[in-house]
Design a protein that fits this description.
globular; 2 domains; 15% strand; 13 strands; Rossmann fold
Length: 391
C-alpha cells in the first residue's frame, strides 16, 4: 500500500510532487500497488496501480493551549504528543489495512506517517523521510515573529530530533535524500533526481546570451525567499558594480507582491513568477545561483541547473547531500561566504571557458549518478533485501 498525503501522486508540478511520483513509479516496478490518496479525484496512470481511496475530509482542530504546546517540549518519548493523529486518516488507513494483506506500507514524511497512526504498523512501514522534521522546526524559528516563538521552535527542533531517532528505530525501513542523514539501522540513501530526465539545453553561447543570472524555486518558501533577499542585498549589488549590464531573473510561485516590488526595484532584477516552460529561461542564462542558507532535504534545483548544462554557484548549505558525488571547482562552485559567492558569479559570467568546463562536468556527473534507473535501482534493491528477510 502506498499512502499519498494532500497531493495527487501522479502529478509532477513541483519538487515534493515529483519525488512522490518517482517513488510510486519505482514501487510499481516491483509489485502491485494500492494507493490511498488523501486528495480528491486521483486517477491511476499505471496499469498495476489501483486507487483504493481518493478523498479527504479535513477536521478543524482547536488551537492548542499555551501549556499544551509547552508540554510537547518535554515529551520526546511520545511521538504523538508532537505529531498528532488525524482521526479521519487513521480510520481510512485502518479500514484498508484490515481488508487487505499488504506486505509493506510505503509513505513519505515522518509527520504524515504519524497523522495516519502508522506506528501501529511499524513492522511493515517504509518511510521516505525526505525533510527531517527537526530541520523544519529549526527553519521556522528564523521566521518567528516573537522571541518566545523563536525559542519554542528551537526547543521543539531539539525535541523532534530525539523523537525522530525513536521512530526510525521502530519502522521497518527508511529512505533519506541526504547521505549524512541516513539512519544507521535499516535505511538507505535515495537521492533526489531531476524529474524531466530527457530535457536539457545546448551549452551556453556567450555571443548570444546576455549576462544573466538565474534562480528557480518556490518563493513562498522561507529558505528560498530569504536566500534571494540576502543574495540581492549582499551579493548582487556588488556584482552590478563590476558588471553594470548584469541581469538577475527569478522564477517561481510568489504571493508576496511587496517582496516582488522590492526585488524588482534593483537594476536588472526580474521576477517571472511561475513558468511552465523553463528550458527557455535556462538557455538564456549564463549562471544559476542557489543562495540557500536554511531548510531540510537537498536542493534539487542545483541538480536541475547542471542537467540543463548551466554553471552553478551554491552556498555550502545548499550542497548538503551532494558532497562526495559533486566536486567544488570541477562540477560546480561552492561559496563559503558572500565575498566568494560574488567572485564566483563574476568569473562564470565573464570567463567562457571556465563556465563551459564546469557546466559540462556537472552535466555528465548528474546524468551518471542522478538518473531514474539509479533511483529505481535503489528502491528495488531495498525491497528485494526486505523480501529476502535480510532485515
Amino acid at each position: 500500500m502506498f499512502i499519498s498525503h494532500h497531493i495527487d501522486p501522479f502529478d509532477d508540478k513541483g519538487g515534493s510532487y515529483q519525488r512522490t511520483n518517482l517513488l510510486l513509479r519505482a514501487c510499481t516496478e516491483i509489485a502491485d500497488v494500492d494507493v490511498v490518496a488523501f486528495h480528491r479525484g486521483v486517477v491511476s496512470k499505471i496499469s498495476n496501480c489501483r486507487i483504493v481511496h481518493s478523498d479527504y475530509s479535513s477536521v478543524k482542530h482547536k488551537d492548542p493551549r499555551r501549556i499544551d504546546k509547552l508540554m510537547k517540549v518535554f515529551q520526546p518519548w511520545d511521538p504523538y504528543a508532537i505529531f498528532c493523529k488525524d482521526e479521519y486518516k487513521v480510520k481510512v488507513v485502518r479500514a484498508v489495512l484490515n481488508s487487505n494483506d499488504y506486505d509493506y506500507v510505503v509513505t513519505r514524511y515522518i509527520p504524515k506517517a504519524l497523522e495516519c497512526g502508522l506506528l501501529e504498523y511499524a513492522r511493515k512501514l517504509v518511510i521516505d523521510v525526505d525533510d527531517l522534521p527537526s530541520d523544519a522546526f529549526w527553519t521556522a524559528s528564523f521566521n518567528a515573529k516573537t522571541l518566545r516563538n523563536r525559542l519554542w521552535l528551537k526547543l521543539m527542533s531539539i525535541n523532534v530530533k530525539i523523537t525522530t531517532r525513536r521512530i526510525l528505530k521502530k519502522v521497518h525501513f527508511s529512505f533519506s535524500p541526504n547521505p549524512s542523514e541516513v539512519y544507521k539501522y535499516r535505511s538507505a540513501y535515495l537521492p533526489n533526481i531531476p524529474f524531466h530526465q530527457l530535457i536539457t539545453c545546448p551549452e551556453v553561447d556567450f555571443q548570444k546570451t546576455s549576462r544573466r543570472i538565474f534562480f528557480i524555486g518556490d518563493l513562498d518558501y522561507y529558505p528560498n525567499y530569504s536566500g534571494i533577499d540576502h543574495f540581492i542585498e549582499h551579493i548582487y549589488i556588488n556584482i552590478l558594480n563590476k558588471i553594470p549590464d548584469c541581469e538577475f531573473y527569478i522564477c517561481g510561485r510568489i504571493s508576496d507582491n511587496e517582496l516582488k516590488k522590492k526585488w524588482e526595484a534593483y537594476q536588472g532584477v526580474k521576477v517571472l513568477g511561475f513558468v511552465d516552460e523553463l528550458t527557455k529561461e535556462y538557455a538564456e542564462s549564463r549562471v544559476v545561483v542557489v543562495p540557500i542558507y536554511h531548510g531540510g532535504g537537498t536542493n534539487i534545483k542545483l541538480l536541475e541547473a547542471l542537467q540543463m548544462k548551466r554553471a552553478c554557484v551554491a552556498t555550502e548549505f545548499a550542497t548538503r547531500g551532494y558532497r562526495g558525488l559533486l566536486t567544488h571547482n570541477v562540477d560546480y562552485l561552492v561559496a563559503r561566504n558572500d565575498h566568494e559567492f560574488n567572485q564566483f558569479v563574476i568569473e562564470l559570467i565573464t570567463e567562457e571557458k571556465r563556465n563551459k568546463m564546469l557546466a559540462q562536468n556537472g552535466h555528465e556527473k548528474v546524468s551518471e549518478n542522478f538518473s531514474y534507473p539509479a533511483f529505481s535501482g535503489i528502491v528495488r534493491h531495498a525491497f528485494m533485501e526486505l523480501m529476502e528477510n535480510k532485515f
